[in-house]
Design goal:
heterodimer, A: 631 residues, alpha+beta, Jelly Rolls, Immunoglobulin-like, 3 domains, 7-stranded antiparallel sheet, B: 322 residues, mainly beta, 10-stranded antiparallel sheet, 4 helices
């Protein structure tokens, strides 16, 4: 198969030869590895890559992935990182208006009666910068003689992959892991891996988030070897009986095997937080296994102040009884319900003291470290923040683990925002909206819903699936909602955009969600036969010196059980450290400070924290009001 | 005979109108009330959208005769006058403002001979009046900027009337054809006509920073910068922007690293912030500096600027290949 540039133009081509999304569980060759976390099946490809930048697709070094290509003119770049922060390509911040505003006229393919599919819109885009990445690797001993995949945790915004000159696959969806099987093209000794990253594709229409518009391999890359018997996907349903006394554990294991499975076994053990074994089961390891309704008496429930995690361990043993794979998974038992139009967690009314959180580091943009995440958790805990919306894309895996461990309720949002296709000059004007109800834009958004679900489905912290942000509403959003409903009855769905198109309100979102509704408007809703519980998916716009009058929102909690709080906009300012050209000192710069136009300038500075993670003065006010409802 | 005039590429955006041609790209914003981007040879010339200028930093004589106190509302107007409307004309014909859904009917291949974008500002004064700034762009990238102030009875005298453009980085020099030195309507007889090069952006070091750097009766000014804010543009070769008179009517300008408000705030030269931008103000009307005394005497009658009568001026921002 050959890579085709026209995929950039086609909303119906968004993954080629990618492995299906699956749970984000870690797997190890031995118990010792599982305990230490030092994984001999894993090999990081982070670090220095060779790199060439091109201003347009036509200027790119075609064929750079071939082993015999002359790459002597290539520079180097760090992975993970943004191409723009490495000095190639202009930094650019824009909110609603697409980044090509005033420079290119574009309408999404198949809107406004288009039948052509708009060939060339991105593949010949004068603004479509290209990064050509290449490096070599030799398989570490633990990976040899196995099936080997490569995982890209985040590449913005479309990528083509080659190994040793062979085309491997193509991926979009910047904030979702893309995984490819490299086994057919691996060779002994040195291998050459090459990635071509395009800044724009039809995915650009779906990724119109209010943020800096970066490109590049901005999250980690790794090789992973799969043992001969391998847990490809795991579904954990850690339910609780209505009396909240007994855990009801349900597991589904999708196994993959390169050898005869006769005699192979899957050993499943659940231990409590103290390491005490609660239950253990051994079953034949093959195919699609289900273990249903395993009872856990006197279950410890998972909640904000008591994020109790059990330890599930799945060991796969071959016919000789040798352990070939060990999978440790944290399990939290909790019960999410919608009862009498009120959302309950473990039988208790849920109050969301939440924030919207973009992944941000003022030095590295959306390349953030574990230390950044740990600092954020510490701030949450110090200031009674109990919930987070992953606005407006899936975050790095580690953030979900941290939320599990620290009892942070998650609204896990898809990577979707098409604001610029329906809200124009402040008016609702959806004539060229995508995904809308266009069949050509259906599968791509369903794929985003599926990836989000399949990857993160085992995290107890996730109470809500969010379809995306500000993308209007149509059949395709309804199909996303339906996907979650068909796959997961242990969580609720969320989507604010349906309030812009009420025709879909019975098919989309379990809650009435608004952004920036004044307190009086919320009261008006709650006093007039409300059909769904109310939350603010965004409120208290903390731009600059803001966040006054927060009590007008929190007071509603005392009055209306169906008012269940919300998520402040937002957690951290988005600004970048730059060396000041006049003083030589480090300064924080925002939109427009890079000659980037059209820009929305200081509109990216809405955080409870400054961009360098120091708290703004308003944080003590949040701490006060959220503290009142922190039980 | 086929027209040989270069056509202007028009990008009918959702919040802006883009105009482009060889070596230039301009973006007119509907939401931000002005020209948001003026790029020639890939170099950005605007930090924020140009706005009408009504203030000059108080001179010692202004302080003496209390002019700034009686005309204080123009300082507010200088800082806070909102844009009330935008209109677009193509080849001289007004069109419906091409925002969505109106702009759905256009394509990625639209051209025109000329496009005019007109912004109307309401002055933040009581009573208010209207100012229009119309930009007419042709295929060479030349922009004719026509500015109109509508006289309004009851408004105090104007310190000045002009259009202020702020470039992202500080200029290294400017050259102009006009009068030597610093000139004002009542102090320009000594100015010798000629072409003058000014290095850096000197601020005349009056003990108390105040209005300075005015150049009356100018035919053209060419500003040179060497740096941009674009992180991906390490190039340090000098590049220029030229503003010239339209027809036979010269104009006044000042080119300083500070706005009138920044100058107004300082009581010593060292209180001024570090120079980091280029503030080019183009003037159609300038109040004299006076000088009979500095404790009460007004500027002579002929050098006042009435706010009760209309004021008009036009200048041209030259296209990239001029």
């Amino acid at each position: 198969m050959q890579a085709e540039l026209k995929w950039l133009d086609d909303p119906q081509t968004f993954r080629v030869n990618q492995l299906p999304a699956h749970s984000d569980h870690h797997y190890y060759a031995t118990d010792a590895d599982a305990k230490s976390g030092d994984n001999q099946l894993e090999q990081s490809l982070d670090g220095t890559w060779q790199f060439a930048f091109a201003a347009t697709p036509q200027d790119r070094p075609q064929g750079f992935y071939r082993p015999d290509f002359d790459r002597s003119g290539f520079d180097t770049i760090q992975v993970p990182g943004h191409i723009e922060l490495a000095g190639y390509g202009q930094l650019h911040y824009t909110n609603t208006l697409y980044p090509w505003e005033g420079k290119q006229y574009r309408r999404p393919a198949y809107t406004l009666g288009d039948q052509t599919g708009m060939p060339g819109m991105f593949s010949q885009g004068a603004d479509n910068t290209v990064g050509a990445y290449v490096r070599t690797f030799t398989l570490a001993p633990g990976l040899r003689h196995h099936t080997v995949t490569v995982q890209f945790d985040g590449v913005e915004e479309a990528m083509y992959l080659w190994l040793n000159g062979h085309f491997v696959g193509y991926a979009e969806d910047s904030f979702t892991r893309s995984e490819f099987d490299l086994t057919p093209y691996l060779q002994d000794g040195e291998n050459l891996i090459a990635v071509e990253v395009f800044k724009r594709s039809t995915a650009a229409f779906l990724e119109d988030q209010d943020f800096f518009r970066f490109s590049g391999i901005f999250r980690s890359v790794r090789l992973l070897a799969q043992p001969a018997i391998h847990l490809a996907d795991l579904t954990v349903r850690a339910n609780v009986t209505p009396d909240l006394q007994t855990g009801d554990l349900n597991l589904r294991l999708r196994l993959q095997s390169l050898q005869a499975t006769t005699g192979a076994q899957a050993q499943v053990t659940l231990a409590d937080a103290a390491g005490q074994t609660i239950l253990t089961q051994t079953v034949g390891a093959k195919g699609d296994l289900r273990l249903s309704h395993l009872p856990v008496p006197q279950v410890h429930l998972w909640a904000h102040h008591t994020p109790y995690l059990y330890r599930l361990t799945i060991r796969l043993l071959d016919a000789q009884g040798t352990v070939v794979e060990v999978v440790p998974v944290a399990v939290g038992f909790r019960r999410v319900e919608l009862k009498d139009k009120v959302m309950l967690l473990n039988g208790k009314r849920l109050i969301l003291n939440g924030v919207n959180r973009h992944e941000w580091d003022a030095r590295s943009g959306r390349v953030i470290s574990l230390a950044d995440m740990q600092a954020d958790i510490a701030i949450f805990k110090d200031h009674h923040i109990n919930a987070v919306r992953t606005c407006h894309y899936p975050d790095q895996d580690a953030w979900y683990d941290l939320c599990d461990q620290n009892g942070i309720y998650m609204m896990a949002e898809n990577n979707l925002e098409t604001h610029g296709t329906w809200q124009k000059m402040g008016a609702v004007e959806p004539s060229d909206n995508v995904p809308g109800s266009l069949p050509q834009w259906r599968e791509v958004v369903l794929d985003r819903a599926r990836s989000n679900y399949e990857t993160f489905k085992n995290h107890p912290a996730i109470l809500f699936w969010s379809l995306g942000n500000e993308s209007y509403a149509g059949d395709n959003l309804a199909a996303m909602n339906q996907f979650y409903k068909e796959h997961d009855d242990t969580r609720l769905t969320h989507y604010e955009g349906v309030c812009r198109n009420r025709v879909y309100q019975d098919r989309i979102s379990d809650m009435e969600s608004m952004m920036y509704d004044p307190p009086m408007a919320i009261r008006d809703y709650l006093e007039h036969d409300p059909q769904k519980p109310f939350i603010n998916c965004e409120y208290m716009h903390d731009m600059g010196n803001s966040l006054g009058g927060m009590n007008s929102y929190t007071d509603l909690l005392d009055e209306f059980p169906m008012y269940q709080g919300g998520f402040i906009w937002d957690y951290i300012d988005q600004a970048l450290w730059v060396t000041d050209e006049v003083t030589g000192k480090p300064v924080l710069r925002y939109g427009g400070d890079f000659d980037d136009r059209h820009s929305d300038y200081e509109f990216s500075g809405d955080g409870l924290l400054f961009a360098d993670r120091t708290p703004k003065p308003a944080l003590q006010e949040v701490s006060h009001y959220y503290g009142k409802y922190d039980d | 005979m086929a027209s040989t005039t270069t056509e202007l590429r028009v990008i009918y955006g959702d919040g802006t109108l883009g105009l482009a041609g060889e070596h230039f790209q301009y973006i007119f914003s509907y939401e931000r009330g002005g020209l948001e981007s003026l790029k020639q040879f890939g170099k950005e010339w605007l930090y924020r959208t140009p706005k009408p200028a009504f203030w000059r930093a108080t001179t010692d004589n202004d302080r003496g005769n209390h002019f700034s106190e009686t005309s204080a509302m123009w300082l507010g107007a200088d800082l806070f006058s909102p844009c009330r409307s935008v209109a677009v004309a193509v080849n001289g014909q007004p069109i419906t403002l091409p925002i969505a859904p109106e702009n759905n009917r256009y394509s990625d291949n639209e051209t025109a001979q000329t496009v005019t974008v007109t912004y109307t500002y309401a002055t933040a004064t009581v009573p208010a009046t209207m100012v229009t700034v119309a930009y007419t762009v042709d295929g060479t990238g030349t922009i004719a900027v026509t500015t109109h102030y509508t006289g309004q009875p009851g408004l105090p005298e104007l310190p000045a009337f002009g259009l202020r453009l702020i470039a992202p980085t500080v200029a290294t020099e400017f050259t102009y054809q006009g009068l030597s030195g610093e000139t004002y309507p009542d102090r320009m007889a000594g100015g010798r006509p000629g072409t003058y090069q000014v290095t850096g952006l000197p601020v005349t070091p009056y003990m108390v920073p105040q209005e300075n750097g005015m150049h009356m009766a100018t035919h053209w000014v060419k500003i040179t910068r060497e740096t941009t804010l674009n992180n991906a543009d390490p190039d340090r070769d000098p590049f220029q922007l030229t503003v010239r008179q339209h027809g036979d009517q010269p104009f006044a300008f000042s080119c300083l690293p500070y706005t009138a408000a920044e100058l107004e705030n300082a009581t010593h030269i060292e209180e001024l912030p570090l120079a980091r931008r280029t503030v080019l103000t183009l003037f159609g009307a300038v109040r004299g500096v006076g000088g009979i005394d500095s404790w009460g005497a007004d500027v002579e009658d002929a050098y006042h600027v009435s706010a009760e009568t209309d004021h008009d001026f036009t200048v041209e921002i030259a296209g990239p290949t001029a």
